[in-house]
Amino acid sequence: MKREILVTSDGSTTIHLPELDEQYHSKNGSINETYHVFINSGLKLVSSEKVAILEIGFGTGLNCFITYLEGKRVIDYVGVEAYPVTAEEVEKMNFISVLKAEKDSAIFEKMHAVSWEEKHQISETFFLLKRKQLFENIEDEDAFNLIYFDAFGARVQPELWSEEIFRRKFGRKKESKPTKGLFLILLLVVAVILWYKMEVILDSLF
Question: Residue 167's CB: how many other CB atoms inside 10 A?
Fold first, then answer.
């Protein structure tokens, strides 16, 4: 499948799939999307000193990298990706310069360089396990405080936006208070939907 590099409205890059008319990040800003959906509506709402995160759709590693930048605590991160991006595509991502994170460029490079299926210590407080796996085959139970649901949109992958999938993913979270865990998942889903709707509205205006 053909893949193209696009520059989004906040100046950061993303990967576009012309055949699906879909991209890895919002055209209205790859970095903006990560902060809006996953950091401000997810990570910053978790008060634990140690956070276990499951990302469904590791992709370019942007969510992982910004989580490292904003984590300020121990992060145990599992990134699931069925079809990893290539080294050449990673090199074309300009996240480091747009984020002005040059001092942490080695961290971003290490996140992509480490092997799959093994847990690695990326920094003193950040641990990463990358798994090549179909999303529907994730079987972890009570393992995560927070889930980054970053699959393609429902138009492209409707099977991943079903009630059954969300019930199964909620079961992956380890929360002493189920209502709190459910609230965080629902909040992330709402944030994704609102961001998508805003993108559709903006596309119709320009």
Answer: 10
